UniProtKB/TrEMBL annotation:
Belongs to the EPSP synthase family. MurA subfamily. UDP-N-acetyl-alpha-D-glucosamine binds at R93, R122, P123, I124, D125, L126, D305, V327. GO terms for molecular function: UDP-N-acetylglucosamine 1-carboxyvinyltransferase activity. One of its GO terms (cellular component) is cytoplasm. This is UDP-N-acetylglucosamine 1-carboxyvinyltransferase. Its main location: cytoplasm.
Length: 417
């Protein structure tokens, strides 16, 4: 099993370029099932999750060509299978995003139920509520969701929680429905806007993405489109925290700063110097870090996908901080691993109380999920000695060339097979 070794490193210095957003690329690749012509996607991150969703599309009959590691061409003129197999679905929850496009395109979809995972049970009730409202008949059994419909019909759908995946799945299904669909209380994440922009380039009529109500007028057909994926705000945030935790001076390049306002605000509160310059952010830190409280929320609140990394930072800040996780019910799996490295953290329900220490120690730890893995790398950069990270396949799901990017900033990090 491959491992990542992180040694105590000097303050990080230099420039790191941020890749395209995983959470945009995955739904956008899935949405390509809706078009009957060639789609060309650029700024695709080089990730295991992208490989998996491409395999899912191929299994459904689409012609997927990797032009290079950042560019994919997809032709879905012929889709001859409506079943997404368990063998692929189990590798990644986001594969469920093919359900909406399949239903819209073929009037039929049979998709393996995504499993729960380390960060919570992650139900799909809101996705199914949306499909039902559009007229689909849904059956769940034997580990699969099966949906059928003669013709999807637009409807008004209120989401009890602004679920990112449910908003995307319903939005994609509604593009080819008869009439108008309104999604009330949708997710407002930048990745939703990126998906809507792509769908509109394909010929859809989606308005209001990024606001509290999305209106989709169904069209007869979607065609092809070229699209450049937005930068990954979570990857950017992770390198910003890396600069802060090591007392470094790093330029994070290719960032849309509007997308990471809460992360910038919290870093500033913690005493980190941040200078924004177009699509670059300079992150400089040389004084002690101050403890600050954080509460995760749907966008535009502080992202849950940055919670673990911020906890590593607070583990070495001066004072006590409280981090409240409101999006996922079980996203504190990294806490026990950070404690193995000497962090002082107590969990009380959905809150973590972190008493800063000035000494973390390297230890063998495991990446319990993607962002937990990132958080442990960050802790490893300042821990005495060597940190050995196991279960790193989670990290490869979401970070492009992570060791190379960190090493280019002076970090001592390498992979052993
Ligand atoms: C590929 C992708 O984009 N992944 C992101 C997406 O995941 P994902 O789309 O799975 O996250 P959701 O926004 O759907 O989930 C948020 C909350 O809603 C709940 N829920 C969701 C759907 C549903 O039908 N019923 C229900 O109760 C979930 O259990 C969770 O507690 O948004 C999350 C929240 O920002 C991020 O952490 C993930 O990185
Ligand atoms: C939870 C995450 O992703 P996914 O929804 O793909 O599991 C994440 O990116 O942190």
């Amino acid at each position: 099993m491959a491992k990542i070794i992180v040694e105590k490193s000097p303050p990080l210095k230099g420039t790191v370029r941020i890749s395209g957003a995983k959470n945009s690329a995955l739904p956008i690749i899935a949405a390509s099932l809706l078009g009957t012509e060639n789609c060309v996607l650029e700024n695709i991150p080089d990730l295991r999750d992208v490989d998996v969703i491409c395999e899912v599309l191929t299994a459904l009959g689409a012609d997927v060509k990797r032009i290079n590691r950042e560019k994919i061409e997809i032709n879905s003129a012929v889709i001859d299978n409506y079943e997404a197999p368990y063998s692929l679905m189990r590798k990644m929850r986001a594969s469920f995003l093919v359900m909406g496009p399949l239903l819209a395109r073929m009037g039929k979809a049979r998709v393996s139920l995504p499993g729960g995972c380390a960060i919570g049970t992650r139900p799909i009730d809101l996705h199914l509520k949306g499909f039902k409202a559009l007229g689909a008949e849904i059956q769940v059994g034997h580990g699969f969701v099966e949906a059928t419909v003669d013709k999807l019909k637009g409807n008004k759908i209120y989401l009890d929680f602004p679920s990112v995946g449910a908003t995307e799945n319903i939005m994609m299904a509604a593009t080819l429905a008869e009439g108008e669909t309104i999604i009330e209380n949708p997710a407002q994440e930048p990745e939703i806007v990126d998906l809507a922009n792509y769908l509109n380039k394909m010929g859809a009529d989606v308005k209001g993405a990024g606001t509290s109500s999305i209106r989709i007028r169904g069209v007869k057909e979607l065609k092809g489109a070229d699209h450049f994926i937005i930068p990954d705000r979570i990857e950017a945030g992770t390198y910003m925290v890396a600069a802060a935790i090591t007392g470094g001076d790093v330029y994070v390049d290719n960032v849309l700063t509007n997308h990471i306002k809460p992360v910038i605000a919290k870093l500033k509160e913690a005493g980190v110097e941040i200078t924004e310059d177009g699509d670059k952010v300079r992150v400089k830190s040389n004084g002690p870090l101050k403890a600050v409280d954080v509460k995760t929320l749907p966008y535009p609140g502080f992202p849950t996908d940055m919670q673990a990394q911020f906890m590593s930072l607070m583990s070495v800040a001066e004072g006590t901080s409280v981090i409240i996780e409101t999006v996922f019910e079980n996203r504190f799996m990294h806490v026990d691993e950070l404690k193995r490295m000497g962090a002082n953290i107590n969990i009380e329900g959905r809150s973590a109380v972190i008493k800063g220490t000035n000494k973390l120690m390297g230890a063998p730890v495991k990446a319990t999920d993607l962002r937990a893995g990132a958080a442990l790398i960050l802790a490893g950069l300042i821990a005495e000695g060597s940190t050995e990270l196991n279960n790193i396949y989670h990290i490869d799901r979401g970070y492009t060339n992570i060791e190379e990017k960190f090493r280019s900033l002076g970090a001592k990090i390498y992979r052993v097979e």
